[in-house]
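>> received
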Amino acid sequence: MALAIRKALKQPAPAPETLLREEDQPDPAELKKLQKTWPKTIKKCRKTLEENYDEQGRQAINAICDAFEELGQIRDEETVEILSGYLEDSRPSVRETAARSLGETKLPSAFEPLVKRLGHESTEMRAAVVHGLGLLGDRRAILPLVALASEDPQFNIRATDALVRIGPAAIPFLIEIAEDNDPSSTLIAIQALGRLKDLRALEVLANKSAHSMATIRSHAIEAIGQLGESKGVRYLVKGLSDENIGVRIQSAIALKKMGDKRAADALVQSLNDPDQDVLEHVIAALGACGDKAVVPQIIPLLDSSNNEICIAAAEALGRLGDDGAVPRLCELLSKFDSEENRAVRLKVLDSLRRLKHPDAVPYMVDLLADPQPEIRERAVDVLGQIGDQSAVVDLENLLKEDRHEGVRIACAKALGEIGDPESVAVLEDALTDTVQVRLKAVIALGQIGNDSALLSLTAMLRDQLPELRYHSAQALAEIGDQRSIRPVEVLAADSDPMVSRGAFKALAKLGDERSEKDILKAAKKRTKKATTVKASKTNFKDMFSPAVLRDMFWPDDPQRRMVIAGSGGGVLLVGLIVAAMFMFQGPEKVIPRGLPASVSIAPDGQSLVCGRSFGYIEFWAIDGKRPEDKFAANSRVSAIGYAGDDNVWFAEGNLVQVLKGGRPETIFKGGAPVTSMDLSRDHKFVSIRDSSGNVFVYNTETMQPVGSLSFSKSSVTKQAPDGQSFLMASGGQVKLLSVKGEELKSVELEAPVRSVAISQDNSLLAVVHGKKAQLTIRKLDEAGTEVATFAPEESLEVSGIEFTGDASEVILFGLRRPHKSPAARFSLGGDSLQYIEGCYAGMPADFDPATENGIWLDDEDTAVMVFNLKTGTRTDLDYRQ
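>> returned
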């Protein structure tokens, strides 16, 4: 790397303006205005830096870092001088922020001080320098970045990101590096070329797709797919017959992205591939190719005993849009009617929703009585898409009677899509349901367009929720009756901008030709009048005569008397509730935190961190009454890992960050949303899994990658407690793989594996396998010696299994009836299950083998549910204020 740095420093510096991308080029007038403010900003930042020069406190360091970020936005040589002076600061956060901010300046003079720190002793500092060089965009950084990644593989991802940020200027240099004979450098260049998507790279990538090393062939194939160039299809087709499974899988994935019909014949041939993972991706590619001629070859795959193959085939048939697949898809729904096959049924329903064929209607109507809410909801969606009026009565009844909100929402939506005027009355009744059902009902009434809904929709214009007021106005506009102009007009003066803009839009659709100014004036006038109370001319005695009062409070009609009695009781109850709220209200405001989305237990097993759907991160003691600390993220925290007291990893979508010192720091941004995080036994390693089956392993102390793997959706996988190896089960084979993909150990079983676990010392393997789901424990030695087996009369249908801390027992979670409890223990020396009373159903979101604390999350409850399997103690971590 030192040689690469010396060569880079000898190269001529590029012109400053070339470092700015087209979208970053400022408007000359705006730039002139900004330049006038720069001296003042620099002076202010210098003062901040002088005041906090030697301070070690968090507040002082934060002030310095904030000043650096401000300086990074100023393209002035003085800022480069200031920031360069802090690159050797003793405080890690200070020097790292200085490096990143130097890159933000986009000035050639920032290159030398940055590139000289690529060999810094601190891994975090080197990572900050790599990031800064990427931001800088100076092509002189290409060789040093490639050299760093070649010498230190943990910088592979970061260096590639930086090369991509440099942009098109890097293409000729990367092509030259890719043609080199050094495998490490070639690999980095190929990855960057694929992400840059420049067609100039096709030739060199095509050459590398025939390389002797499978890893380089695989990455070259992936890069060709990223280019999206039709000329690259022939190289991808060739990759389908490669001897390496990974290359074949990558070829199928790339062909799916391309969606080219010319690959159809080769993909059909690959349906004979012996590997199930390859087959799954080939089917997906056939679905994307758009050639309906392949449908007859895909339909037989619906009979596969492998659920993942069934799912892939069903999805492919839906994407191809051939009606000939409808009968077989409907038959498959009838065949699979258990919870075990829920994923297959949902995918079949998705495909039928795309096909929109009327032959599916009877099957969908039958599914409206299915015990699983998700299945009912999806069946309703299909009926809405088909638009057959024969299902209207069934949908109306379901809207009135189903207890699951999601199903009622789907019913309202479907009735609007079908558009039968007879549904208006049922949809009007739904306007008193939950908020989301009401919203869908309002939209549906607008879609139907029948003027019998005018009164109900006009009343909804006064609802407290802005969304309901907005959609009610739009629904009235869809109906198109000009009598709605005056009621909608009032919303032009609404306090919510969305509602007021929606009112103007609706009025225009209703044919109101007035200007927005005139409409707003009229709306304000009417609003003012509506708040003025005029004196009544009604005779007081007439209003409160004995006859009137008697008829008001105790009418002759028995039904009216019952309504009044009920209303009186209701008013009294509401009064008591309001009084209780005022008497016992807490000191704090209610803050909407959302539902718990992810959780992780701390290294000591006595506390945990919870990520919520509204972006909050909460720190709890296991037996706490309130959170000990909180942090507000930006969006749903889909995964979280408690690596240490000041080291919490979390993901928002595809963005992975670490929370240190109360500040989030970006680790990487992946290509797919993150679904989970798992920590090693010592919490020094975290595995980050995304929705595409990729797993990235990072060292939580250095925050650097140590390896990555890619698993198919059909395989059963689990991180080993050491954090540097993974169990992968496919069919009846279980493999222990290193984070580099090397096979460490392998165990053969007679039947397909359903669930796996590994002991804390990596010595024992527990497997639930076979049709009757029996439990087998084996040693992870060369022979795979059997330690214990248990095959009860009742099938061990489980959500998952775990070893206890001392590996003397296996705990089975998510047991179903006829088992007495959803959780049980099996002792390695025993012959029966010991049921754990009071345990929650399903697999815990996190489990600590040492303390045997399990954490469960419910997608309809704000509480984090803790259960200790040793003591049977239940604790709900929740607070309402």
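>> The chain has 35 helices and 28 strands.
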